[in-house]
Structures are given as structure tokens and as C-alpha cells.
# Entry
Amino acid sequence: MQKRLLMIGNIRPRLRWRKITHWVLNLGRMACHVPTGHLETYHRFSVLRSLSCAIALILCLTLAAPAPAQALPSFIKGFIPSASSATNSAISTAYHQHMSDLIVEGTGTVERLLSDDNIGSRHQRFIVRLSPAHTVLVSHNIDLAPYIKDMREGDEVSFKGEYEWNEQGGIVHWTHLDPRGNDHPDGWIDYRGDRYE
# Structure
């Protein structure tokens, strides 16, 4: 009699869940070989595990969703990939492989304004941060192209020019039209909606 009561005690949890999730319990038991007496515990555990996975997935998707740049603190902006990452990757590759004489395009933030170079051809010089780990010096010939007025540190700038490798991250020059017309690809600088070439 006592043995029969024990069997009924083991069956009751299964009967309670059978109407709702009979097929889930049977599949779980067959797949995991869970003893019959532990099916209710196993089912609760699997539901909790599935629920926690769903919550983690929702959190990941929420955090990965693009947020407006204005809503992010400045120290985070530099670590989030942007559309400019693809164009800047050519400069990064050239830097790591010590390559020069390449026509490149890039977008970044003006990190520092340097004094103009007035020896020989005059150049306006400034450093652009392309990524948290990489800066490049832009040397803009102001004898062949207009001077960029009111440039400020922290502003975004885009450019096209010729890349020359150095240990500090490289130099981009020839950010202007070819004065001879067809000997060299044209370059430019885009700043605050204006193109300087």
C-alpha cells in the first residue's frame, strides 16, 4: 500500500502538467533521460533557462541598436563603429603594413590644430583622430586650395588625399585638385558642409 502511494505521489506532478505541456515533458524526458519523479523540477528549470536566455537576447539586441550620437557620452563615441570605419580601414591597413603613395579617403575628428607650414609650399596642418588608436596628420596645400577658416578641435572632417606612412600614424597630403589636370587623382577636404579642393 505504501509503495502504491509513493507511485501515485510520483505520478501526480506529471498529471498536473500533462494537460498543458505533455509533449514537452515527454520530449524532455526522452532527450535528457530525466527520471520521472524529477520532471516537474526539470520543466521549471528549462523554463527558467529559456526565459533567462530570452532576456539576455533582448538586452543584447537593445544594447546593439544604434543610438543617436548626441545621446552618447564623448568617451563612448570613439569606440562605436560608424559608417566611416570602412573608409578608415584602408588607412589603418596602410599604416600597419607601412605602405605609402596610396589614394585614401577618411573621416574623423579634428584632434589638434597645428601651426601652418610656411616653408616652401604653404600647408595648413591638423591632426585627425580616425579611431581610438589611430591618428593621422593632414597637410593641406593652401597655395593650391582655399584655407579652411574657423576650423575647431572636436569637429568632424572628411578628406581624400595621398597617404604617406610614418611611425606617428601617417600623413595625408594632396588634398586638392591636380594643378596639371590629369597627372594625379584629385583630393579634397569636407568641413562643415563646404568642400575645399
About this structure: Helices lie at 2-32, 39-64, 74-77, 84-96. The chain has two domains: 2-64, 74-196.
